[in-house]
Amino acid sequence: MKLDPFFTFLLGIVVTWSVYHFFYIKDRVADRQKTFAAYPRTYDVVSASALIAGACLVIQSVGRRLLQSLAEKMLPRDRWAHQVFALKQRRFSEMAFKSIYFLSLTFAAFFYLHSESWWPKLLGGRGDESELFKDYPNQESHPFTHIYFYISAGYHVACFISLLLSPKLPDFYETLLPCVCAMLLIFFSYQGNFLRVGSIILFCHDFCDIFSCGCKVFVDTRHKVVTFFLFACLVVSWGYLRLFAFPVAALFPIFKNVKSMKATADGEDWGFFVCLLLTLFVMNIY
Predict the structure, then answer these.
(1) Which of 24, 53, 78, 169 could disulfide-pair with 157, CB 3.0 to 4.6 Å?
(2) What residue intervals traverse the membrane (predicted)?
(3) Radius of gyration of the chain (CA)
């Protein structure tokens, strides 16, 4: 069944609602930034993500050239035509870069955040759910949460640019929708000071992508045992983190706290965040 019309329709809703949401909350965010010095600044995430996106594109381009010789050794040249082999080389290099990126970022996130009072036990922490929204919206989080958002925003912007510049494949809208949702969630979560729960959501998704990209590195090589091992790790991590920990440690606490948080009384557009999060969760199931 071809779902492109559905994904296109959903993408239109998400983008339109995002524009409305930005103008709906911008004055309230400006007031919070004036009254609370530690409140996240919109300019910071925009400027940092732009710089990091550019760096990601440059590093990926350089890495593709550096890994070309490794790709030639690991990929069986006689299996494909020259043009197809060149595309396989490109994907090998890109996925290798992404695997290293996700491995490094998730390791750093766990290292810096696992001892925080709000980091969930499901993810190896000892935090309590009540700490997630304590003192919100004037909530001060660990400095690494800001860095985590900057890097993640820049990476997804780079992916978005790469996707638009690449040949349009049959799964274009299927790939574009979660990419756009991720960018918007990162931006508006930072703007709304949802750094704690946002970091949990990022971690649940980034950890799985270590194995997702790793599978794509080895799938065209002769190392089938490594491919099957990475795929098994992907299935386990996807089931635990994206389908279990993500809703339990992030979605459910949001639903439970949404009525008690101060922002609700101020007219926060909670429906927007719920829509994006549920879209992301449905895409995880899909």
Answers:
(1) 53
(2) 7-25, 95-113, 147-165, 172-191, 197-219, 226-250, 270-285
(3) 20
Q: Are the C-beta atoms of residues 48 and 153 closer than 8 Å to each other?
A: yes
Determine the Cα–Cα distance for residues 103 and 213; give it in Å rounded to an integer.
10
State how far the Cα of 18 lies from the Cα of 279, in Å rounded to an integer.
14
| CA 42/CA 61 separation, integer angstroms | 29
Domain of 16, in residue numbers: 4-285
Concatenated DSSP letters of 162-228: HHHHS---TTHHHHHHHHHHHHHHHHHHHHTT-HHHHHHHHHHHHHHHHHHHHHHHHTTSS-HHHHH
Neighbours of 129 (CB within 10 A): 16
This prediction's pTM: 0.90
Report the candidate in 220, 201, 189 with the shortest Cα–Cα distance to residue 95: 220
Contact 263, 137 (CB under 8 A): yes
**Cβ count within 10 A of residue 93:** 21
How far is residue 201's CA from residue 273's CA, in Å, rounded to a whole number? 13
Rounded average pLDDT over 51-68: 88
Spatial CA neighbour of 143 closest among 38, 61, 282, 226: 38
Give pLDDT tens digits for 238-248: 999 999 999 99
The Cα–Cα gap between 246 and 122 comes to 10
Token reading at 207: 């950890």
